Amino acid sequence: MKYWFRKTLKHYLMLLPFFFFFSVFFIYPIIKGLNTSFFKWDSVNPAVFVQFQNYINLIKSRDFIISFTNILKYVSITVPLGITVAFSLALFVNSLKGPLSNFFRSAYFVPTMMPLFLAASVWRWMYAPEVGIINTALQAIGLDSINFLKNPAYMMFALIIVDVWRSAGWNMVILLAGLKNIPNDYYDAAKVDGANKWQEMIYITIPLLEPVLFFVIAQGFIFALQVFDAPWLLTLSTTQGYGGRLKALLFPVMDMFGRAFGVYKFGEASAYGFMLTILIIIITSILFIVRRKD
Amino acid sequence: MTTFFKFIKKHFSIGGIFKWTLAIIFLIMALFPIWWMFNIVFSEPGIPIAINPRLYPTSFSAGIQNIKDVLSEANVLAAYGHSLTYAFLTVIGSLLLTSMAAFEFALFDFPGKKILFALVLVAMMIPTAVTLVPTYLLVAKLGWVNKMQGLVVPGLASAFGLFMLTQFFKDIPREIMDAAQIDGDTHFGVYWHVVLPLSRNALVTMAILTFMTTWGNYVWPMVIAKNNDIITVSQMINWYNDPNSFMTVNLMMTAFLLAAILPIIVYIIFQRQIIQGISITGLKG
């Protein structure tokens, strides 16, 4: 017994530092947050137990409905579009050889190295009326300028461009590694059988790349559902006013942030976090179920 | 001209031309915003964009003047210093915590290993949105708002980092460790003297990725570092972006450039490690 204890104790001692911080700053906040979500609390006055009132208030609130509608619209466009672009880039880079391949891979990856808050700040000026390069170009070819960040018809689209611009390189690198992992024998065999490029894609590349594709798609959804930096900066949001004109770029994390740090409704904000988690769990479960069926 | 077309016809198919056109359009789209930011800094300010669309840099001295102006702003260098400290402490702390735990998960068996590792995997799926508000409340209770430890400590136990290092450490041959143990090295000694030096590449990769995410962290400093004596680069950019600060576009772009320059330099130096590190998450995940 004593020997067994001494033998295993050393393992736990090495794990202790990580799990100490992990418990205090990750697990405890989650449990505490769940608890807080049942209280009305502004961090100054004593908390009042209100059962499910925070959740009910949220579901009834207009901003909550807008932000959940927006997020569903956003993820259903940005994830498929982003993955398609990343996959195309990966296929292209993979078709090249030597220094040319390295050059394109490095160049496509550059946007990923810009911190998101900077990417959004620069793009805000690209989109700007009058001084922005995009509107200057539109006017140069005789079109009307568009207020991309104030006209709700264009705002979602403008955000998606920024997101795809920043994330495509990241996903390209992961997909490229997956493509390089597919043994050449498969393609050689397909050539012998007289398969064309399209058939190679459908019967070899996509099935063999499926685990990597699934990873990229699932990760893409989880990130996109928590979008904050880019829409916050593109709309010049503050805790006093966020989401842009007609709340066209209002998303769950922004709304949660505003409720917590703008009006100090910490109970409601905690409940918000859990509602968002439930949405994320639902969407990732759907992905897993769809995958298993195939 | 006809020889040109013949050359094109001989070497490119219709599909090939389409592919290359698209590839070059994407190349321009990827690089242009950064290039444009650079050009605005290095152009005479005040000239309307319709006259000088800033497609290439036109004035080196204007750029230097812009940079001088931004750097002379009271908080800018301080913000740089805070962000560097924040990133440095996060890198060191999380590397230490995650590598110790990854050492156990990758190389040993002990009761409860599966459950603990599963916990870490689940943690990777949990959105940071859930922990943002309660973690802030905890940090506030500890009195760490507007303090460096408030910025650094909550981010140290990174589930993602642990997962990644575990994958890397699995490739370490067992024989080398057994040899060290026979030589009388302690458990911690094996970790410190054998495993860490052997996985220098993995640690460098992790360090760079952690540095990049910390430097780019926007939400957490916004919540924690509100005072001027702790403001980070992302907060400084927030201030430049604020319409109430009445900044001109060229000064704003200069601030963006100064904030971007460090990650870009790191990328140029450590490109191989960064790309390798990201690739491995997809293949082993």
Structural account:
The complex is a heterodimer of chains A (294) and B (285). Chain A has helices at residues 2-36, 53-60, 62-95, 98-109, 116-127, 133-140, 152-180, 184-192, 197-225, 229-234, 252-261, 266-293, and strands at 39-40, 48-49. Chain A has 294 residues and is mainly α. Chain A has one domain (55-293): MetI-like (MetI-like fold), CATH 1.10.3720. Chain A has a two-stranded antiparallel sheet with strand order 1-2. In chain A, strand 1 (39-40) and strand 2 (48-49) form a beta hairpin. The radius of gyration of chain A is 24 Å and the shape is globular. The N and C termini of chain A lie far apart (50 Å). Chain B has 285 residues and is mostly helical. Chain B folds into 2 domains: 2-68, no CATH class; 73-284, Orthogonal Bundle (MetI-like fold). In chain B, 38% of the residues are buried. At the A-B interface, helix 1, helix 3, helix 4, helix 5 and helix 6 of A face helix 2, helix 4, helix 5, helix 6 and helix 10 of B.
Features:
heterodimer; A: 294 residues; mainly alpha; MetI-like fold; two-stranded antiparallel sheet; B: 285 residues; globular
Note the main sheet of chain B. Answer: none
Helical stretch tally of chain B: 14
Share of residues in helices of chain A: over 70%
State the helicity of chain B in percent bands.
over 70%
The named CATH superfamily of chain A: MetI-like
Number of distinct helices of chain A: 12
Poorly predicted spans of chain A:
none
Q: Can you identify the CATH class of the largest domain in chain B?
A: Mainly Alpha
Shape type of chain B: globular
User: Could you give me the name of the CATH homologous superfamily of the largest domain in chain B?
Assistant: MetI-like
CATH class of chain A: Mainly Alpha
Which two chains have the most extensive interface, and how many residues on each? A-B, 90 and 88 residues
* Average predicted local confidence, pLDDT of chain A: 93
Question: Helix and strand succession of chain B?
Answer: HHHHHHHHHHHHHH
CATH topology of chain A: MetI-like fold
Strand content of chain B: under 5%
* CATH architecture assignment name of the largest domain in chain B: Orthogonal Bundle
The ordered H/E elements of chain A are HEEHHHHHHHHHHH
How many discrete domains of chain B? 2
Kindly report how far apart the N and C termini of chain A lie.
50 Å
